[in-house]
Design goal:
Helices cover about 40% and strands about 20% of the residues. It has 10 helices and 10 strands. The longest helix has 26 residues. The termini are far apart. About 30% of the residues are buried.
Length: about 325
Amino acid sequence: MLPRLARLRVRIRVIVITMVTSTTSEAPKLRASSLRTVEWNNIGGRIRRYEQQGIMDFELKTLDLAGAANEKTDVLLVLVTEGFQAGKDPVSRLVAAALAARDLEPKPGKMLHAYRAEGIAASRVILAGAGDGSGKKLHAAVQAATGALRSTTARKLTIVLPRRSGAEAVRAAVCGTAESSYVYVATKSKPEARELKKVVVGVDDAGAHKAAFLRAKATAIGIEFARELGNLPPNYATPTRLGEEAARLGKAHGFPVEVMGPKEVARVGMGSFMSVAKGSAEPLRFIVLRYEGAGKGRRRWCWWARASPSTPAASPSSPRPRWTR
């Protein structure tokens, strides 16, 4: 009769053999490939729905500090620059009192929170320092303030830009908010929803900033789409799938896309690129996206990226821009 420890080892061995036999009844390569295809179809569908739905509802509005005091919103974000000139409205008085008491400094990253401030309709008010009011400083201020809202239930945010703000300020407000509130969702079975649903950007004249606002929204959507693809695990973000996503992107927005496979890459003599890709069973892809919307006589911008399965995360390497005529 076997000792107790020996019987335990035999039992564990039988269990392991049974599990291996039951899970490898199909060809491992076929099973893995089929599973990956099914999972990617689900993931790809989520990404495409994510792209169609956009990031959040952005609105451009003519709004000064006096009007912001009556704005119905969960959070009112006031960007305070150096040399702030206070008016007689409740928001201006709040900012002036905070600066006078040195509870707030007009430096990027410096913030002061107020709850149920007198004369202000918003339940929460954030005063954020924005330095000299440049696009870079405003971007940093918006990111810091929006990041502080991630753990809250705020659904609507109103941002009041400094007076005489330009296109860079509008871009900083839109992109800074989107980047700071971004939540990865693609491969999560129960993704956490983004709490922030609507953002109102207040400027001196909404009509004058409409073009900059539309460009900023398009930029924010493109950045989030790229982040979502870049964050995918390597078994999802294969070169083949990245090529398919690039083709869909070109078809949706009307610009030419060229996806080169091993034969095309060999034809143009990319020996080094091919040698790197030989380390994986996944075929390489060389993806070229061209923007040809510029007028005649102007240079046109072209982005290309190599997708090699042997590179980290099997995602495209850092895109390298080049000019094309």
